[in-house]
Design a protein that fits this description.
The chain is of the alpha+beta class and 707 residues long. It contains 20 helices and 30 strands. The protein folds into four domains: 2-213, Helicase, Ruva Protein, domain 3; 223-287, no CATH class; 333-391, no CATH class; 404-707, Distorted Sandwich (Beta-galactosidase, Chain A, domain 5), CATH 2.70.98.10. Strand 9 (427-432) and strand 10 form a beta hairpin. The longest helix has 17 residues, at 139-155.
Amino acid sequence: MAVASMAAPVLAATSDFGSCGAALRTSAVAQGVSAERFDRVFADITPDLSVLPLLDAQPEFTTPIWDYLAALVDSQRVDDGRTRLGQHAALLQQVSSQYGVDAATIVAVWGVESDYGRVFGKRPLLQSLATLSCNGRRQPFFKGELLALLKLIDKGDLDPAGLTGSWAGAFGHTQFMPSTYARIAVDGDGDGRRDLVASIPDALASTANYLKQAGWRSGQPWGVEVRIPAGFNATLAGRGKRKPLADWRALGITLVDGKPLQVPAIADDSNAALLLPAGAKGPALLVFRNYDAIYSYNAAESYALAIATLADRLRGGSGLVAAWPTDDPGIGRQQRRELQTLLLARGHDIGAADGMIGNATRRAIQAEQQRLGWKDADGRAGSRILQALRAAPPAQPTVFRLPANYPQLVQSPIVRSNVSMKDVQGLSTGDFKGFTAWKVETPFSTAAISVFGGQLLSFVPAGGQDVMWLSPSAKQPPTPIRGGAPVCWPYFARQGQGNDVPSHGFVRTVPWQLRDARREADGSIVLTLVPPVIDTLDLRLQMVVRVGRTLEQELITENTGSQPASITQALHNYFNVSDALTVDVSGLDGLTYLDKLDGGAAHVQQGDWNLRDPRDPGRSDRIYTQAGGHYVLRDPGFKRIIDITTSGSRSAVVWNAGEVAAAKMDDIGAAWRNYVCVEAGNVGPDVIALAPGGRHTLKQVFAVKPL
């Protein structure tokens, strides 16, 4: 009986993998993994055969290099990387000093591998490696990685619960394979464990250690962009074909600006190799030993060039000079989001404009390419289709009439809820500064959302000041509430509307309903709210608000009718500031804006926005077009930054009434210096067209940081 009771869990743990599963268990135990540990972690693991096609579809080898680099070395990754260099300056200085690898290269690896910790990979790591150990080609390699992972778990470095990574088994901030983890990872934070998943110090120190072990030479460059002469013999190029710089000079190669080839930092230049990643008509590079160290991290030229060129950009460089040999260059995430927004505006149901190009986006691009009469309707997200959709006439907003039941809906709010307040810890209803509201309390922050208008009234990070400004003289319903984040929907201002309908839409002056609420494992609270059904309007709106370390807010619109419909909308954020005249907002430099105070004339933003702009000092009413969706409000008086990110939007509104206009508004008056409006929206030319059944999501996220 004892033998049978021991065999049962073994069979249950490995039966889905057949004889291979039993062999894996035997090998793991032979290498020191406890049988009990193996059986426990394998108890619920089943094969995932969807990983097998990915063995032959790695983007480093299947994506044109101009697309690959455009996606990985884009303006967003550069900006975020420079931010990380500042945030972790002390740590990076320590790591660089210890391992001899510069901070920009370490952070570039972090940025390319996981987008600075945002994208670890979604596949259960043990499941993927077990599947690849028993199926497809390279089974011995993946078996070795699986056994290495099991030993790390057994040793206590890693917790198997929720451990995810890439389909091939790489995981953590800098995506180490388990065998590399076991061999190279170091304890960067001194807690006695090597945890590249939860510890940034461990991850960055381990990355530096990897490059050092791979032969990194401190203080030397990875390579230099060069120019090859006409008629150059391209067969001389290749990472394995090494020559001294003198030999390359003798062959007519110069620096990219035409100056003589010399790289003083290279003490031993005998390992210089010429790369022509897109052939003789594209960029040319001479690479040195540090490039080889990067290449060893992931043996693909496009990958190594992504790391190397991102590191150069983080140091302040402008990137490669020579153009790629294509008439349709790749586009970065900001441009991809713009492309997706244009597709959404034409009624394509592709989900959120998140910059991630999936099958739905490719199908929508293909449909637009066919509509444009292109023979090569390949669904590729490139500059050509983006420019074509930019040039196409924008969708026109629908003209809305006053719904028959609207006057009955405009009344003092009555709390309507499908959720029992006592069932969600931290959620209650009550008075907030004179308004009936849903009140939220989490370990990280508090918030209040008015029943009238579904309007965010307050968001206060723990130990901080309110992010939102609410007028001290705000009027009671049915007058719209001045402050917070009014929901302007299904039109903004009176864009395309007559004077018979209220400005800024129907839903900000009617009571909303709480449809759902839940408390997440970390204590954050997620609310789903809806306005009442409005007669004759074949559009439905719901708002999802997540209150936690950040404030996340989504407006989700669905066309439930049988005809196309167009909307404009905005989350009209009033941010609480110490003094509007001292605040600066970045993320708008170089954008075109339509100035309502100048009759809607177009101008180009120069530098950060502020109310000290000599063109129009002390006031602002601007719509920024083709906006990128990331804005940073710096408030020196409150010594804080409000980091604002948006998606599903390619416009931004920045508004402050100014002293003269505010004096005529009894719910602002002298308080005009206490707020700045930076609004996420689809306004001006940014019209959202929804086909029948189509959906669109506008999202914004606030994060508060010290200045």
